[in-house]
Every structure is written in C-alpha cells, then in structure tokens.
C-alpha cells in the first residue's frame, strides 16, 4: 500500500508500551530513494527531544486508527545510541545503531543488493547480528551515506522545482512511500504551471537528476508526458490507484 509522506506525519507513533510522538521528517538515501530513518518529535514524552527510528522497527501501519506501531519499548528507544537528527549520519553511527537494536545492515556490499541488504522488505532485517554477516568490512568502510530530507524536498509551502526536458512544470508537493519496502516511489507534483489546480504523480524512476543546492528536480519526461501522467487525489489513494500508477510507468509507452 502507498502512503503519502504528509499523511504519515499526522499519524501517532506507538511503542509497545505507549505513544512516543509523531514523525517530523523522513531521511532517505539519495541513490535508492529509500527511507532509512523516521525523524520523531518525541514531545510530550521526551520534551524537546528528537529520535531516529529505522523503518525496520515498524511492525505495521494502521490507516484507520492513524497509528504507526513499532516493536520497541520506550526504554529501548530512549537508550539508543545517539544519532544526529539534523544530519549528516555517519556510517559508524549506523553500525552502532543497528547493532544496538539487533538489525541487519541495509547497504549494498554487506548482505546483498536489495533495497534492504539482500531483501526488498525492511522487516526482514529484524533479529540479525550485523557483525556476523559476510562482508562486514564493507559496513565499516569510510563511506558515509548521503541522507536527504523529505521535508526539504516538499517544503512547508512550496517544494523543489520540477522540470521536464523542455521546461519547468511545477514543484514537488508530496511523496508517496511504499509500505514495507519504504521506498519513495512517486513525487506528487503541483502542476498548476501547466494545468491550474492539478497534481500529477511522477515516478522517481524518471528522475534524471536532482540539484540539491539549487532545489531542482530534472525529469526524463517531456512537458506533454507530464500532462498525461496520472492525476493525484489524496482522498483516493487505494490499491486500484496504486496499480494505475504502476501500469502507467511500467508500460513501454506512457499514455
């Protein structure tokens, strides 16, 4: 199931023994567009504090109750190794963090080339000792992850500019995240520049380049292809719509 980043930010985060706060941001790596950490505003439980949680800890998302349930206690979260919630996150911090929670390591070169090590699903890394994995040396390599902020891309009022091959078409307004794999599959683009009042769903597969210093996303699509991209209705994010998005971007010709 797909969830919008903005809607998940309104959900309550629940540990096994009570509420821990709400999501303030998502950190994703800029190569795979996979969310690696949830930035949690821990008020009022821990006033003024933020915590990072891995999607590996998310047991399920309940859209009816608008809750995200993690299989950790408050004490586990409170005593986790410190990680910089304002970025950058170092690879050594990640290793310490994953070892503390008993999670396998997600990055390529450790346990495979999937989105999450050798797996497409985050939860498959639960109860794995990273120090017993083949290729652990790769996990300690001096290469830090490039974490980016979803909040930065979509902005509080207006997000990154989005351009087709031939001209600017709008700006990023939201992202759609796949439950389980936690990959950002689509960027919801406000296309009022082309079609007033409309939002279109743009696959991250057609992102040619992101200029992180100039707040700009370049697509491999033309303006006309953007116009034909699936329209976005936040009240109708169903599995039927998800299939429609998938079919549009996985056919040989965009229609």
Count all strands and give the number: 14
- Beta-strand content: 25-35%
Radius of gyration: 19 Å
Q: Write the H/E string, N to C.
A: EHEEEEEEHHHEHEEEEEEHH
Mean pLDDT: 89
Largest sheet: 7 strands, mixed
Our count of domains comes out at 2
So what's the overall shape? globular
Uncertain runs are none
Q: Would you identify the CATH architecture of the largest domain?
A: Alpha-Beta Complex
CATH class of the largest domain: Alpha Beta
The secondary-structure class comes to alpha+beta
CATH topology of the largest domain: Photosynthetic Reaction Center, Chain H, domain 2
Distance between the termini: 23 Å
CATH homologous superfamily assignment of the largest domain: Photosynthetic Reaction Center, subunit H, domain 2
Q: Helicity range of the residues?
A: 10-25%
Count of individual helical segments:
7
């Amino acid at each position: 199931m797909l969830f919008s980043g903005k809607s998940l930010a309104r959900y309550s985060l629940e540990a096994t023994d009570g509420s821990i706060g709400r999501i303030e941001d998502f950190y994703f790596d800029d190569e795979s567009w996979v969310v690696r950490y949830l930035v949690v505003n821990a008020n009022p439980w821990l006033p003024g504090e933020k915590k990072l949680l891995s999607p590996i800890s998310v047991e399920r998302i309940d859209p009816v109750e608008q809750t995200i349930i993690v299989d950790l206690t408050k004490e586990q979260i409170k005593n986790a190794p410190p990680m910089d919630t304002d970025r950058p996150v170092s690879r050594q911090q990640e290793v310490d963090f994953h070892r503390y929670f008993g999670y396998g390591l997600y990055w390529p070169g450790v346990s495979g080339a999937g989105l999450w090590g050798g797996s497409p699903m985050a939860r498959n890394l639960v109860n794995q000792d990273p120090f017993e994995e083949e290729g652990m040396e790769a996990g300690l390599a001096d290469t830090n992850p490039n974490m980016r902020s979803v909040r930065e891309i979509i902005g509080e009022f207006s997000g990154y500019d989005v351009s087709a091959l031939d001209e600017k078409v709008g700006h990023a307004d939201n992202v759609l995240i796949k439950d389980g794999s936690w990959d950002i599959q689509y960027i919801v683009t406000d296309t009022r520049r082309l079609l007033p009042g409309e939002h279109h769903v743009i696959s991250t597969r057609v992102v040619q380049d992101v200029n992180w210093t100039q707040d700009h996303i370049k697509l491999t699509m033309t303006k006309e292809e953007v116009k034909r991209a699936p329209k976005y209705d936040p009240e109708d994010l169903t599995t039927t719509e998800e299939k429609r998005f998938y079919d549009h971007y996985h056919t040989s010709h965009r229609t």
